[in-house]
Structure formats: structure tokens, C-alpha cells
Specification:
The complex is a heterotrimer of chains A (about 400), B (about 550) and C (about 220). Helix content of chain B is about 75%, strand content about 0%. With about 550 residues, chain B is an all-alpha fold. Chain B folds into two domains: about 1-15 and about 335-548, MetI-like fold, CATH 1.10.3720; about 40-325, Orthogonal Bundle (MetI-like fold), CATH 1.10.3720. The radius of gyration of chain C is 17 Å and the shape is globular. Classes of the chains: A alpha/beta (about 400), B mainly alpha (about 550), C alpha/beta (about 220). The interface between A and B is large, with 69 and 57 residues.
Chain lengths: ~400, ~550, ~220
């Protein structure tokens, strides 16, 4: 581990970066030729057809440009893939693993990295890496306060935005406290996905930002001694909120699409998503009425990046690297940001792009319900992963086994 | 049954159970400790037992009621025609159809709103995923009733039902009483194993529980599946401990059921001694039976129609009864993956079914030529894959298959499907195979035909119909498999069912609809082919078409 | 008991548990028709099963069965050269009339057209011209019975066993089919054993009449 860290440091030093450009280019060429003809198994959550279609498109591109075949292994939960790699490690399978590439972040990344389940560091070898807006978007190299150390490569930015239907609701509540007041006067019209679902836990963290005395402690690991006192306001908030929720909190939607479906069905008035362009994209697809708009909370909402990582025993490592690099391609990033396609925020620094590539982004119609980058407001950093685990656990103990 | 086939059926189960038990008890019992510490345990255990027992009780009671009220009447043929096709509906599709129907934003609420209910927005009612598991129970009853009914139908002729009922009627018994006192004991003896299978399934289903069942907490089997999927490694031994507990629960529930059988039998004997004719309850009983049959057929039929409608729906807002537009957009955009998934599903189903047919025919032929009589023990072993909860042995099997590199391939999924397809194929085929007129074989042998020639030229062609039906049953069973595909396929082998269930948590109704429609369509096509092909093949052979 | 050609039952006994069902010593020359007569359940059919080699394992057999001087007691059914007619025609319902006959035709008749000729000739000899492609289920009772006999004879058996083959036929048809059967068997020089409970059948057979336990019965 020491040696690896030292190498990473070395590679990231500007002087050495310049020195190694040529070597990197040669190395990349050999990766490209090795990748040709490989089939890369990308394990990625498969619950959203638009994302699935996008991945199919990526596969077409990869085939066309590099002769790499991409197989999307659709997961119900990213942890399925993690568990798989883990099982392979326990079974002593150090190469020829089933998983080549994982869509990952946060807790799953932390788990895999700490157990030595990932290959890396590799991001610096990607030719498109210099385009990433590392300075302007620190979430591209910090995953839940954990430095990525080059063990995962970002491909999309996400930020929590709230969605509401202007046909029913004119002035949405723009803070965590106002949301509670609103829910009390409009019972049954709000809910959140059931933790440990990712989006559901994100909502809890957003509430933490709103109710904690000192939210800065979220950037450090949970401190057992003070934890109970620190999160007490969260439970107090939820104790008041839950009786006013959809189904009186006796049932919860299971994930983001399920929550979105409740908004589409008119079962709730306010929903939220980890994708500022989701509402516009759904309107474009004809699954949400065009009266839906988005808003963010005063003081900001939580944002993070989605990454891809390569397991230590991936059978097609070269192909996986090629896909990771392709995901950072300006053309691919612009397509992902197109609300008619995905509406994901780019991880690239637009200023570093060529004029032609920048024009791709400027030509995008962000969509009727998408806030401009300025209106999206400040991005709150993800708390340390231990908060997510702990809160999700305690939530389950408190509310997950109903009376 | 020959040892090879027996081994094939029992070995994976035994290996899987061992593979589950090891991590459950290993590591100083850490898994068990964590399982016991999980606050949701009492409730999820109660849910598993409750939904399993209640759904089995209801399904069996309604099956018997329908039989008692209508067996042998013209109305019965109609009920049977209505219920039989439902047997081929995969569990997940049935659950999704039901969910689409009864949800507060579901089709029923849309049809009634706003005119009758005044609802402009879906009512805030906890119908789906209700904490008592009522919608899960309903789904299980709807799916298991057709199964039990068809198993009972196969048994009725063997116990000389018609003449017994007529005899009782001439003694002044009402239909229900006649059925209960003269047929039920013998009929139930034949229904016992199917009933146990229904009970074990109801307690441990994962796909139906994920779709319809409670979430705070979920049933034990669903929670085990969630634990298996968690990133946190240490949850694996918790899952294994849960799986062992699930097995113990299933054994307990079946034992409890056995005790209930004994008491019911004693009660029946005691009542029969007083010879109540009970003719008065016939009409209300017939009414309830008809209502139940109608309700179940209607629920599933409308649910599945709703699924199909969603797959072609454009914007469809509450409380509109119909989508604003009908569009093939979902089918067009998802076309490639739908095609690919259907192809994988079909390949697996065909492979598993062909292997099962070959094994079942080989067993039956061996039984016939060696003059073996099927023993009760062999029958229990045959039912073993249906009695041992899937969730109890599949996790272990997955952990065992991994180091051998056996998992994650279409062939491995095919092999594990075979374990579940074989019993159904065997049960479906054995009746007609054993009932085949043995004089044909004797006649052919005296004409100089060898056993092989008799099998290939006479027995097999004459059994074309039953073989095709068994094949369709096998296809339907394979297409409907969720947990084996998920666990042994390691996420790399996608079938219509795993896709539909994975999507179900996401709530994209249009895509779920499309996958569910295909899930329905493939078995339906198989059954249609099984019906149509013999008619075409034997268009010039009256006897083969069942005509005198 | 010596006989070069024909069917010989040499001290054939069959027991089920401690009950003796069959005890027969009998020689049937080629072209002769012997009869076993008895009430139902008296072991007549059991004797036939022993001769065809389809006796269920719970029965115990002693004695020998000789056909044309060869001991066939333990041969498999298909190698015995013994033809069998049931009460019913037992035609194969999925094959055409011609298909039924072709199934019986020995392998030494080779070539499609040669086989077809044999079948057509057989049908013509029984007044069934042009029925080769018919569904057997569409034939009349008399036609079915004749097809069944043709099928049995086409296999070129050296002995013929008749298990009450006329009992399901109408009275007038019965005499006709009976004569047809016996004539054919005699013409082919085959030893024939008839099992029946009908005195008329036994009389028409013209050979010895025994009970399953070997007593000679007066007609």
C-alpha cells in the first residue's frame, strides 16, 4: 500500500506528469490493442431504461471506435457486484473475474477499496483524464470524503434537486424546516425512498445538514461518543415528519424511480432526485406532465459524482480502461448531459475543452424543468461514508420494523 | 427412479444446504448472533409463517370448495377453462399484474375515479406492501389455486369420484357433504404433497414478496435476499443464518400442517358418524365458490391486461381510466434488450426442458421395462426441490459454484433450472405415460419389434400430446424462475423474470409491462403449441384427437 | 412328445402364490387349432402370456415351451415367432392402416416398393383394397379385425395365439371373421392356440379342447 501511494504521489507531481506523457501514450496504445476484441462486463444498476439505453449507446461507440464489446450486467443493487467480487476474492480467484467494470460510489467504493478489491490507481493513465474538472468539482476525486486515489474514475455529476407539479403546488417549501411545516399541513403528499436506499439515505443526510448544530462534523468519521447527541435532531425531525408522510410512513417507495412514479401518478406533490435533469427528461419521454418543475433548498443540496471502478481480478482490464476513458470523452459527456438522453451533469471542465467540444454543451437545450447551473446553488459535500452506514442502520432499527 | 436422476435432483439441494449451513454456524456463530439481534426478526418470521399458512389454507379451501360445488357439472368445465391458463402465468407477472390493479393509483381506482370515489388524486391508502401481508396473501392464493385445482383434477378420476358422489346423493347427502365425507380423505391423500409444496413456496417466495409483500420489515426470505446483496460482507453469514432459520420454519410449518391434518381428519370422522346431509349449504357454498373463481380469474386477467396496456401507454395520469395515447415507444426503445432477454430466456427454458423430458422419459421407460412400481419415497424425493425452500439452498449453492467457475453461465442456469423443471415435467408426464395401453407394447413385441422400436415408433409418438404438454409445463416453470436465475446466474444471465423483478422496484410501469407481457406470452405460446400441434399432427387420426 | 414342426407345451405349469393356474402338456401341429376353454379368471390368458413371454414377474412358471423344436421358454417376446390377437384389434392409432401393416413386415422384405406391394397384396387378399392410407379409427369392426389379423400374419409367426379375438364382434360378423382367421392360419400352416369361453369358437376350431389345467373337455 505504501509503495502504491508513493507512486500515485509521484505521478501526480507536475514535473513527473510532463516527463511521463510519452510513456503514458505508449502504454495507452498497448492497452488499446489489448482491449480490441474483448468483451467488457459492466455491472451497473439496471432499473432505469434511459440509463440502460445510454449504456447500450456507449457499447455501440466502444465497438465502433475500439472494437470493444460492452455487456451491461443490469443490477438491482450495486452491492450485488461488490458481493460477487468479494466472493471471488474469498474463493481465491485472482484473475478472470466476472466483473470488469462497476458503476460505483460512496459506501460500496469505500468497502471495495478497503478490502483490496479494486485495481488501481488507473485514472492517470486515461488520456481524457486531464479534461476532468478536478479543481472546480472536488467531488470528482473525493468520494464521500474518501480520496479516490485514482481507484475510480468519475463519469457523471449528480446533485439533489426537488421536483413538484405546478398544477397542484405553486410555492414549494425551500428549506428542510419549511418542508416539515408543509407536510404537516398537506399530510400524505410527501415521502422518501426507504433507507438503506441510496436516495433515501441522501434525504436523511440533507435533513442532517438542515437540523444539526454543527454540520461540519459530517466530514469526519462518526464519533461514537457524540453520535447520539449529534443526530438527535434528525430523529426528532423524522418523528414529527413521519405521521404526515404518504401512507403515514407505514410503507416507503423502494428507490428513486419508484419515488418518481409516485409523482407521475399524482400520489405525492413533492419528490426529489439525484439528477437535476431528470424531470425534464421524464417530461420529454412523456412520463411526467410538462407542469413539473424543480427547486433546490436554501443553503444548498448534497451533490456527488458517479464513478466507475475496475475490480482487482477483472478478466478484461484493458477493455474496462478503454470504457472508463470513453466515458470521459466530450461527445459522450455532452450526450449524457442532454436532458432528452440522461440529463446528467458533466464532470469535465468546459474551459479546458476545444471550441468544437464546448459547442456540443452550449447547444444543449437543458429542458423546461432544469435549473441553470447558477440556480442549482451551492453543492454540499457528501458526509463521511460512516454516517450513511450508521444512519441507515439506526433508521432501520427505529422505523424499518414498524410497530 | 434410477439413481442418476435421483442424484441429479437431490445432490444440488444437499450441497446447497451444506453450503448455507457452513457460514451460518461458522465464525463462532456470528451470523446467528446478528440474525437474532436484528430488530425485525420476530415480525418477519411471523409474516413468513402467517402469509404462508393463510394463503395455503385459503387456496386449498377454495380449491376444495370449487370441486365440491361443481365437480362433474357443466359450470365446472367453464371454471376449469378459466383457471387452467393461469397456471402458466409466472409468479412475478401475476404479482405485478395484481400490484398494478389494486394499488391506490391502480386500474381499479382509476376506473372508479373520480365519478364514484371523488378522488382526483390517488387516495393515501396502504394497500400494496401492507404490513400484514394481505396483498401478498391474495397474490399467493390467486397463483396457487389454479395449481391445486389442476392437481386435484388429475386425482379425481383415480378415486372414482363420480360414482361415489352419485351413491352419496342417493342417500340424501347434499353435494358439499357428499364430497366431504366420500371423496375428501382420498383426494387429500393425493393432494398432500402439492399442498406442502404450496405451503413451502408461500412461506419463502422472494419475487412475489419483493413486489407485493411488506417492507417494514419484509418477509424473512425477502430480507435474506437483501442481505445476500449487501456490500457489507459480514451480512452474508447473517443471510446464511436466516436461510437456515427459513428451512427450520418451513419444516415446522409443514409439521404443524400435518398435525392440523390429523385433527381435521378426526373431526371429519366424528361428524360423519352423525351423517349430516347438509343439503341447505349447497347453494351458498356454490355461490361462494363461483365468486372466488370469478374473483381470482378476474383479478389475474385484469391485472395482466393492465400490464399489457401500460406497455403501450403514453402519458397516463390519475384518474384517467385509459392512457392519453397508445404508443409502441416502450417496445421500440426497449426492443433490442427485450429481444435479447427473450432469446436467453427461451434458450434456458428449452435446454432445461429438453433435458428434463429426456430424463423423465428415461426414468419412466426404465420403470416400465423393469416392472418397477413407483414408491412413495420416490415421490417425496421428486417433490424435494419443491419442498425445500429455494432461499435455503441456493445461496449455499452459489458460494459452492463460484470457486468451480460454474456460475454465471447460461449452462449453469440451465442446470439449476433443470432441478426445478424436472419434477413438474415428471409429474405432468408420468400419468399419461403409465396409463398408456400396455397391450400395444405386447402386440408390437409379438410382431417382432424391439423395445427401442416400440418406444420410438409407438409409445413416444402416441404420447406426443402429453409430451408436448409436459414440455410446455417445463418451459413455463423455467421462464418463471427468479431466485435460481439470480443466484446461479450471478447477475450475468438475464431472463425476462429477473429483469421484470429488478425493474419492479423501479416503478417504470411501461417497461415492467413490456417484460411481463413477454413473460406471459412465452409460456402461453408453449401451451398453445402443445394444444395445437397434436391436433394438426393427428388431423387424420380420430383416436389420437380423443374422438371415438 | 415329439414333433418337429409345431408348438409344444411340455409340462407347462404356472402358479401364483400357492394357487396353480395352468398345467398343460399339449402339442399343436402346423395348421392345427387347439383350444383352451374356461371361465374368466381361470388362467387362460395367463397361459398365453407365458407363451408370448409377457408373464408378470409375480407368476411362477415351470416346464418348457417348444416351437419348431426350439425351446423358446426364456427368449424375449420379439424373438419367439409367436403372433398374438387380442379381444380388441389393438391397432396403432397414430399410424395409417398401411403403417400398421408395415410395422409388422419383417426387415428381410427390403425396398419401399416391395414392402408396399406386400401390404397392398395382403389388403387385397382380405377384401380391403385401397384402405392403406386410411385412419384405422374410421374402419368398421370387421375391417379392423381383419387388419389386425393381417398385421399379425405379415410378421410371419410360427405360432398364433388367439385371446378371445371374436368375443367383441356381432354374431354374424363373428362367424365370418372366425372362418377367415382359421382359414388363414391353416393356409399358412401355423400352429394356433385359441383361448375362449365360447363353445361355438371351440367347435369351429376343430382341434383338441382343454381346460387351463389340462383336462380334455367334451363339446
Amino acid at each position: 500500500m505504501h509503495r502504491r501511494t508513493a507512486l500515485t504521489l509521484l505521478a501526480s507531481l507536475p514535473a513527473f506528469a510532463g516527463f511521463s506523457t510519452k510513456a503514458l501514450a505508449a502504454e495507452w496504445d498497448s492497452i488499446l490493442s489489448e482491449a480490441k476484441g474483448q468483451t467488457v462486463y459492466w455491472h451497473a444498476w439496471g432499473g432505469d431504461p434511459k440509463i440502460n439505453d445510454f449504456i447500450t449507446w456507449i457499447g455501440d461507440k466502444a465497438q465502433e471506435r475500439y472494437g470493444v464489446t460492452l455487456e451491461h450486467v443490469k443490477l438491482a443493487a450495486t452491492s450485488d457486484a461488490v458481493a460477487r467480487v468479494l466472493a471471488e476474492q474469498q474463493a481465491g480467484q485472482t484473475d478472470g473475474g466476472a466483473v470488469d467494470l462497476i458503476w460505483i460510489n460512496g459506501e460500496n467504493f469505500a468497502a471495495m477499496k478497503s478490502q483490496g478489491l479494486l485495481y488501481g490507481p488507473f485514472t492517470e493513465t486515461l488520456p481524457n483524464w486531464p479534461l476532468v474538472d478536478v479543481a472546480g468539482k472536488p467531488a470528482t476525486v473525493t468520494d464521500f470524503t474518501l480520496p479516490t486515489d485514482g481507484f475510480e474514475s468519475p463519469w457523471a455529476m449528480a446533485q439533489l434537486v426537488f421536483e413538484y407539479d405546478t398544477a397542484w403546488l405553486q410555492n414549494p417549501p425551500q428549506s428542510i424546516d419549511l418542508l416539515l411545516e408543509w407536510s404537516i399541513s398537506n399530510p400524505g403528499r410527501f415521502t422518501y425512498p426507504q433507507p438503506p436506499d441510496y436516495l433515501g439515505t441522501t434525504f436523511l443526510k440533507q435533513v442532517l445538514y438542515g437540523v444539526m448544530a454543527d454540520p461540519s462534523v459530517l466530514q469526519s468519521p462518526v464519533d461514537d461518543a457524540s453520535y447520539a447527541a449529534q443526530v438527535a435532531p434528525l430523529w426528532a425531525y423524522l418523528d414529527r415528519l413521519h405521521p404526515t408522510l404518504w401512507r403515514e410512513a407505514k410503507a416507503f417507495p423502494q428507490n428513486e424511480p419508484a419515488l418518481g412514479q409516485l409523482l407521475a401518478d399524482g400520489e405525492i406533490d413533492i419528490s426529489f432526485a439525484f439528477n437535476p435533469g431528470r424531470a425534464s427528461a421524464e417530461i420529454a419521454a412523456g412520463t411526467l406532465p410538462d407542469t413539473v418543475r424543480t427547486f433546490v433548498l436554501q443553503g444548498g443540496t448534497i451533490g456527488n459524482a458517479s464513478f466507475v471502478a475496475i475490480p482487482f481480478n477483472a478478466a478484461h482490464r484493458a477493455g474496462a480502461l478503454v470504457i472508463a476513458n470513453l466515458l470521459l470523452d466530450p461527445e459522450v459527456q455532452a450526450r449524457a448531459q442532454d436532458p432528452a438522453v440522461l440529463g446528467f451533469q458533466t464532470v469535465l471542465d468546459l474551459q479546458s475543452l476545444s471550441g468544437e467540444d464546448r459547442a456540443r454543451f452550449e447547444a444543449l437545450d437543458l429542458g423546461v424543468a432544469t435549473l441553470s447551473p447558477a440556480d442549482l446553488g451551492p453543492v454540499l459535500l457528501e458526509p463521511h461514508a460512516s454516517w450513511m452506514t450508521r444512519i441507515a442502520q439506526d433508521w432501520t432499527a427505529r422505523y424499518g420494523v414498524a410497530q | 427412479m434410477p439413481p442418476l436422476t435421483l442424484g441429479l435432483m437431490t445432490l444440488p439441494i444437499a450441497a446447497g444446504l451444506a453450503g448455507t449451513a457452513l457460514p451460518a454456524f461458522g465464525n463462532g456463530g456470528a451470523g446467528i448472533e446478528k440474525l437474532l439481534a436484528w430488530p425485525g426478526l420476530p415480525k418477519s418470521v411471523a409474516l413468513s409463517i402467517g402469509t404462508g399458512l393463510v394463503s395455503t389454507l385459503l387456496a386449498l379451501a377454495l380449491t376444495l370448495l370449487i370441486l365440491a360445488a361443481f365437480a362433474g357439472t357443466p359450470a365446472f368445465a367453464r371454471i376449469r377453462r378459466g383457471l387452467a391458463p393461469l397456471l402458466s402465468v409466472p409468479h412475478a407477472a401475476a404479482a405485478l399484474g395484481l400490484a398494478f390493479l389494486i394499488a391506490p393509483s391502480g386500474w381499479i381506482a382509476r376506473l372508479l375515479s373520480p365519478e364514484l370515489t371523488g378522488w382526483q388524486v390517488p387516495p393515501d391508502l396502504l394497500i400494496l406492501n401492507d404490513p400484514l401481508g394481505l396483498s401478498l396473501t391474495l397474490g399467493l392464493v390467486a397463483k396457487e389455486l389454479p395449481f391445486l385445482l389442476l392437481m386435484a383434477l388429475a386425482a379425481l378420476p383415480q378415486i372414482d369420484a363420480d360414482r361415489r358422489l352419485t351413491t352419496a346423493a342417493t342417500l340424501g347427502y347434499g353435494r358439499i357433504a357428499a364430497f366431504t365425507f366420500t371423496l375428501l380423505p382420498d383426494l387429500y391423500r393425493q393432494l398432500r404433497l402439492p399442498t406442502y409444496a404450496v405451503l413451502a413456496y408461500g412461506m419463502t417466495t422472494v419475487d412475489m414478496a419483493l413486489i407485493l409483500g411488506p417492507t417494514l420489515p419484509p418477509t424473512l426470505s425477502a430480507q435474506i435476499t437483501l442481505w445476500m446483496g449487501e456490500a457489507n460482507l459480514t451480512m452474508r453469514d447473517t443471510a446464511a443464518a436466516g436461510a437456515v432459520l427459513q428451512l427450520v420454519l418451513a419444516v415446522l410449518a409443514i409439521s404443524l400442517w400435518r398435525v392440523m391434518e390429523i385433527f381435521t381428519k378426526r373431526a371429519l370422522i366424528a361428524i360423519a358418524f352423525t351423517a349430516p346431509r347438509l343439503a341447505l349449504i349447497d347453494r351458498p357454498a356454490a355461490f361462494i365458490a363461483r365468486l372466488a373463481a370469478l374473483l381470482i380469474t378476474g383479478t389475474l386477467a385484469f391485472g395482466l391486461a393492465g400490464l399489457s396496456l401500460w406497455s403501450v401507454a403514453g402519458l397516463w395520469q390519475f384518474p384517467d381510466a385509459w392512457p392519453e395515447e397508445i404508443t409502441l415507444r416502450t417496445w421500440a426503445t426497449a426492443g433490442p434488450s427485450l429481444r435479447e432477454t427473450s432469446a436467453t430466456t427461451l434458450i434456458i427454458a428449452t435446454g432445461a426442458t429438453l433435458a428434463a423430458l429426456a430424463l423423465a422419459l428415461a426414468c419412466l421407460q426404465a420403470e416400465a421395462s423393469l416392472h418397477l412400481t413407483p414408491t412413495k419415497r420416490a415421490l417425496v424425493l421428486l417433490y424435494l426441490p419443491l419442498l425445500v425452500p429455494q432461499i435455503a439452498f441456493l445461496p449455499g449453492l452459489q458460494m459452492l459454484a463460484l470457486p468451480l467457475g460454474l456460475d454465471g453461465t447460461v449452462a449453469a442456469v440451465m442446470a439449476i433450472h433443470l432441478v426445478f423443471v424436472l419434477p413438474y415435467v415428471f409429474l405432468s408426464l408420468s400419468g399419461p405415460f403409465r396409463a398408456w395401453d400396455g397391450r400395444i407394447a405386447t402386440a408390437a413385441a409379438t410382431l417382432g419389434a424391439s423395445e427401442a422400436r416400440i418406444f420410438w415408433r409407438l409409445r413416444l409418438p402416441m404420447l406426443t400430446g402429453p409430451v408436448l404438454t409436459a414440455a410446455a409445463v417445463g418451459m413455463a416453470v423455467s421462464i418463471g424462475q427468479y431466485l435460481p436465475t439470480l443466484m446461479i446466474g450471478g447477475g450475468r444471465v438475464e431472463t425476462l423474470t429477473t429483469e421484470a423483478v429488478a425493474l419492479s422496484s423501479g416503478g417504470n410501469r411501461r417497461l415492467i409491462g413490456a417484460y411481463a407481457v413477454l413473460q406471459l406470452l412465452l409460456p402461453a405460446l408453449a401451451f398453445s403449441a402443445a394444444l395445437a400441434l397434436p391436433l394438426w399432427l393427428w388431423r387424420d387420426r380420430r383416436l389420437m384427437r380423443g374422438l371415438g | 412328445m415329439t414333433l418337429d414342426q409345431g408348438l409344444i407345451l411340455d409340462g407347462l405349469t404356472i402358479t401364483l402364490g400357492d394357487r396353480r393356474l395352468v398345467a398343460l402338456s399339449l402339442a399343436i401341429r402346423g395348421g392345427e387349432v387347439a383350444t383352451i376353454m374356461g371361465a374368466s379368471g381361470s388362467g387362460k390368458s395367463t397361459a398365453l402370456a407365458a407363451i408370448t413371454g409377457t408373464l408378470p414377474p409375480e407368476f411362477r412358471r415351470t416346464g418348457r415351451i417348444l416351437l419348431n423344436s426350439k425351446d423358446i421358454s426364456d427368449r424375449p417376446t420379439r424373438l419367439r415367432g409367436v403372433g398374438l390377437m387380442f379381444q380388441d384389434p389393438v391397432l396403432f392409432p397414430h399410424l395409417s392402416v398401411g403403417g400398421n401393416l408395415a410395422f409388422a413386415l419383417p426387415a428381410h422384405v427390403t425396398g419401399r416398393s416391395a414392402r408396399r406391394l406386400r401390404i397392398d397384396a395382403a389388403l387385397a387378399s382380405a377384401g380391403l383394397e385401397g384402405l392403406a392410407d386410411r385412419d384405422p379409427a374410421t374402419l368398421s369392426g370387421g375391417q379392423k379385425a381383419r387388419v389386425a389379423l393381417l398385421r399379425t400374419l405379415l410378421a410371419e409367426p410360427k405360432a398364433l395365439l388367439l385371446d378371445e379375438p371374436f368375443s367383441r364382434l356381432d354374431a354374424d360378423l363373428r362367424a365370418q371373421i372366425r372362418r377367415f382367421t382359421f382359414d388363414r392360419a391353416k393356409a399358412a400352416g401355423i400352429s394356433t392356440l385359441l383361448v375362449t369361453h365360447d363353445v361355438e369358437d371351440a367347435r369351429a376350431a376343430g382341434g383338441p379342447v382343454l381346460s387351463p389345467l389340462g383336462e380334455t373337455l367334451p363339446l
